[in-house]
What does this fold into?
Amino acid sequence: MVCANTPVSGPFPVDRGFKREEAATRPWMPTFTDLSRAAFCPRQLYYARRDGDDGPPETARARQRLAFEYASLREASDARLRAEPIDLAPSDYRTALDRLAGRDDWSALCEPRSTHVALEGKDCHGRVHKLIDTADGVVPTLVSPGSPPEHGVWEPQQVRAVAAAKALSWERGESVPRALVEYPAHAVVRTVRLTTRAKATYRRALRAVRALDGPPPRLRDTSKCRACDFRTQCGVRTRSMRSLLGL
It folds into this structure.
């Protein structure tokens, strides 16, 4: 299941930390970040390209680093867990990690074959946080500093995950049927399978990126607009703002 209406500054902050590194390799080819932004809002992608992007704050990076410390966090004291940027009480977080440890790929998540890997596919390129060995072969993993939806992943993350799996498949010349999205602040890992619907959503985002030439139409008063980092430049007015101004 994929959740589409996702605030960029809320549960799903775009993983902007890869943006500059992605753009340096193949500037004429869309990046994973471009595709996830286009899935969220093509107009946001336009402003991100025009104005640049300095990447995520250190608080987001600190949350992402938790994905590389699962084993030690599972044994950590309450005092240490309270000091970490997690979104659960220590006992609940430890329970979530114990549940995560029941996955077949637990060891691979804790000890990936490689980290922060650049991938270049036929249609897009970018970086993934991990490549892990599984019974299905090598699987790309993306780490989100945000919160997971109740089920599945947020749609922009699904698009990014599909892009990563397709790029890895192109590089290795073999099928990569899935990717993972990790939410380490909640000790949750979700699987993104390359279903017909998921690939169609990816292709829509790819078409949107390729067609971008000037600012696309504004969205109308959605939670996306209220949470977007570019709402001032965009000029979108939310219903609450119009009410406040008496318009």
